[in-house]
Amino acid sequence: MRTVLRICRVPRATYYYRIKESKPAIRPRSGRPIPGFSLNKKGEKVSDARIKGYLRRLLGNEEESTYGYRKLTLCLRRRYGLRLNKKKVYRLCKELGQLKPQREIINRVPKKVANNRVVTGPNQLWQMDIKYGYVTGLRRHFYLASIIDVCDRSIVGHYRGRSCDTNDIKQLVQTAMLNRQAFANEQQLVIRTDNGPQFISKAFYAFSGEMGFEHERIPNRTPNKNAYIESYHSVIERDCYQRNSFETYEQAFETVDRFIRFYNERRMHGSLQDLAPATYLKKLQSGEIIQQEIAL
């Protein structure tokens, strides 16, 4: 075939022909072959059959018989000096028929699903989400949690840090509600989030009751329900993250703070009559602008 292609002056890379019947066109994917042994601390090979014997011995003891594969892995490492991971122990336990039933994870926090709403003014519906940033100089990520008011598109509060847990989110929400005087609003504030671990915790559920706001969560795989905060994330990704290379956390945080001040106070927004969110809110509160209903 190569001779024919050379005579016809057809490049080999541009010609595709049927592979012989004896060779399947698509080879089944397969992982790394199972070696059948593990090494101990001395570098000696210990066969899987012997490791299974160790497992039977451990499971035959009264104390270790209650262990699952994760703790059995630690026992094999400490008692027999084996170098192996929990995935291998899981496989061997499965072959022995000794796997413990997995515990069912139950989230006992009630979930209020996001409903269709009509927004007629500020501090009625906020959307909150968390976005990653990247510090190139340290090869580390940082967290940016932001809250946007659906009415005037203001970022009413944000948090940035090396980690982000429920306490950080609680502090963020509390500060935002104080700054925006959301407690004095006639209509109860609704904060909409996704199903991140910070938002589905019992602590945040109790916090929503203490602060007097309604917390609702969007269904899984429906980011369109949080469209306003997602749109803001695309803006900060394009106009802030991609335009800067951060060498330190401090540089990243300072740049993010500066961009959010610009976003709130000076950046023109097409959906706000080409006004910045802060300017739009002032005109809205003074009666110069009549707020159109936002259905979502």
Describe the structure in your own words.
The protein has 296 residues and is α+β, with helices and mostly antiparallel strands. The chain has two domains: 37-96, no CATH class; 118-295, 2-Layer Sandwich (Nucleotidyltransferase, domain 5). It has nine helices and ten strands. It has helices at 2-8, 48-60, 69-80, 86-96, 166-179, 202-211, 227-241, 249-265, 277-286, and strands at 37-40, 45-47, 82-83, 118-119, 125-135, 140-149, 155-161, 190-193, 214-217, 294-295. The strands form three sheets. It has a five-stranded mixed β-sheet, sandwiched between helices. Strand 5 (125-135) and strand 6 (140-149) form a beta hairpin. Helix 2 (48-60) packs across helix 3 (69-80), helix 3 (69-80) crosses helix 4 and helix 5 (166-179) packs parallel to helix 6 (202-211). The radius of gyration is 29 Å and the shape is extended. Mean pLDDT is 88; it is low at 18-26.
List keywords for this structure.
single chain; 296 residues; alpha+beta; Nucleotidyltransferase, domain 5; five-stranded mixed β-sheet; three-stranded antiparallel β-sheet
Number of helices: 9
Biggest sheet details: 5 strands, mixed
How many domains in all? 2
General form: extended
Range of helix content: 25-40%
Structural class by secondary-structure content: alpha+beta
CATH topology of the largest domain: Nucleotidyltransferase, domain 5
- Rg is 29 Å
Contiguous uncertain segments of 5+ residues? 18-26
State mean pLDDT (0 to 100 scale): 88
CATH domain class name of the largest domain = Alpha Beta
Number of strands: 10
Within the largest sheet, what's the order of strands? 7-6-5-8-9
Function: Involved in the transposition of the insertion sequence.
Protein name: Putative transposase
GO molecular function, one term: nucleic acid binding
Pfam families: HTH_21, rve, rve_2
